[in-house]
Specification:
The protein is built from eleven helices and eleven strands. The chain is α+β, with helices and mostly antiparallel strands. A hairpin with a 2-residue loop joins strand 7 and strand 8. The protein is elongated and about 105 Å long.
Amino acid sequence: MQVRIEDVSAVEKKLIVEIPWETVSSKLGDAYRELGKGVHLKGFRKGKVPRQVLEQMYGPRVHAEVAYQLVRESFYTASAEHKLAAVAEPRVEKGAEVKKGQPFSYEAIVEVRGDVVAKDYDGMPVERRKLAIPDEAVEEALKQLQREHTELKPIEGRTETRAGDVLALTINGKIGEHDVSQPRFGLDLDDTEHEPLPGLAAAMTGVPLDTKDKAISIDVPDDWRDEGLRGRKAELVVSILDAREKDVPALDDELAKDTGKAETLDGLRAALRKDLEDRETEVIQSETRQGALKELIKRNQIEVASSLIERGCEVQYNRLRAMLGMPPPQRGEEVEIPEDLREKLRPAAADEVRGQLLLEAIADKEGIAVTDEELDAHIAEAAKGRNTSPGRLRAEWTKDGRLDNAQWQLKTQKVLDLLVSRAQITEVDKLTEPPSDLPLPSEPAGHAHDHGEEGHVHGPDCDHG
């Protein structure tokens, strides 16, 4: 087989291939022999149909199948021998026809990852938010704990509802032209912020605990938060099924002990502040990494193969579907994206792939790798969160390919942390621009097989273990 490769662009190569007739003839012979095993023709025993007859009846189909096989096999051989780092199947532009007695030749365009060189990634300007947890946030966390430890008890010693009670209601009637039928509906008379209709809590406060078929009329204002209810009139009939009063614990040392977080109220406040600071520190770290990645991409607008961009669009589309609660596509299912939406997704998809390629290039250049100890620690932490053993989780990840994902994610974090450590950091109270919606890469770009993981962009030269 003769192969010549010409550069078309930074991410495209022209593959010019010629395969001798001897090889083509051998492939044809194999194809006809395999075909003959299953062909039933009147006048011939099974498996004994002459090749000449098979050629007359099935020649075009066999030639097409052999041509496809020759292109595919020669492509993979050429990719391996010439280290093409192809990211998609070849696009045949000329030839690829089987002609008796003649060499099989074709020309094809092959998209490749290209030589990625990351530049100017030292000293990048990156903003980092200052860690600041206001006292109000601590107090709100304390109130949330208080709510979580609040018990609902049967009402004793009174016959009417009052603020703080929680009611179970049946509601029937109309809101505008729409019928309403709620056989059991919960209503917290304290929580007017989340009441379904304005004034419903007030209407059910101070009424008998055994209220039955109470008529309520409510005019919903034009500025009500639910657009579907604005300006409508509600005519309802409401009955109380059950009424409970809240036993709210005092904000004191006993509550602190009940939470298991501290022995005193002051200690609980300190513990809650620490929790909030830890969570906020993680958010700030993620924002800073995203800022570094965004600046890296801005400084390195490398050319990206169109097939990688299109697959990146599919990743973004599936991510959008997940956010909307739509089921993910089944394995092997073709993703159909409206062209107008695909056009909008392409710029972000290109940058996402671009970021993956750049981070991988920096990891190679800087000699950044993940040690066995770091991977083991990551698996152990994930296993703890799933209440399973590290060995079981490692086996599960190895089976479905996620072990490679985890290793790449750890490497990515190390590269991003390197960029941040070398950046010109400016501490700010508020970021000049909102945090980037560009996701931090979880897998390397340019791999071919499907691990079933969101975020992966594949290609024919995938070398995952």
